[in-house]
Amino acid sequence: MSGIRGKNTKPELVIRKGLHALGFRFRLHDRTLPGKPDLVLSKYRAVILIHGCFWHGHDCHLFKWPSSRPDFWCKKIGKNKENDEKTMKNLKTEGWRILTIWECAIKGHTRKPLNGVITESAMWLAGRKKEAEIRGKE
């Protein structure tokens, strides 16, 4: 597990590149905010969280419970979900808008066109919705 990256993952790099090309400027992994969000857009008072479906226990085709060491994985992924809830609550309390982009929106057979995910993110940033989620096609 030491080889698993928590920052600068492929989905994160793709989203960053697309938003930057549209003119959005952001900070990365701001330690002063709860959960160190992947992207922080202060101008919009918004954060973007890019979640891997496996590590965050998403209910999509990319998440399957491992057959080895089920107790370990249940605790690990359960703790990740608890941390996500706590992070969301704290960010909302501090007045941040939150967009969650799931890996299945970018990868796998339910992925959306990449420019569609970037456009959807940009439209959310320009809007007023407090919270949104982008996930793969149902």
Overall structural domain count: 1
Structural class: alpha/beta
Q: What does the oligomeric state look like here? A: single chain
Q: Kindly report the CATH topology.
A: Endonuclease, Chain A
Spatial gap, N to C terminus: 30 Å
The CATH architecture assignment turns out to be 3-Layer(aba) Sandwich
Largest sheet: 5 strands, mixed
- Residue runs with pLDDT of under 50 for 5 or more positions: none
The helicity comes to 25-40%
- Strand % is 15-25%
As laid out across the biggest beta sheet, the strand order is 1-2-3-4-5
The sequence of SSEs as H and E is HEEEHEHE
Number of helices: 3
**Total count of strands:** 5
Assigned CATH class: Alpha Beta
Compute the average pLDDT. 93
What gross morphology would you assign? globular
How does the SSE layout of this entry go?
Elements: H1 10-21, E1 27-28, E2 39-41, E3 46-51, H2 70-93, E4 97-102, H3 114-126, E5 131-134
Helix pairs in contact: 1-3
What report would you give on this structure?
This protein has 138 residues and is of the alpha/beta class. Helices cover 36% and strands 15% of the residues. The chain contains three helices and five strands. The chain has helices at 10-21, 70-93, 114-126, and strands spanning 27-28, 39-41, 46-51, 97-102, 131-134. α1 (10-21) packs across α3 (114-126). The protein is globular and about 45 Å long. It starts with 9 loop residues before the first helix and ends with a strand.
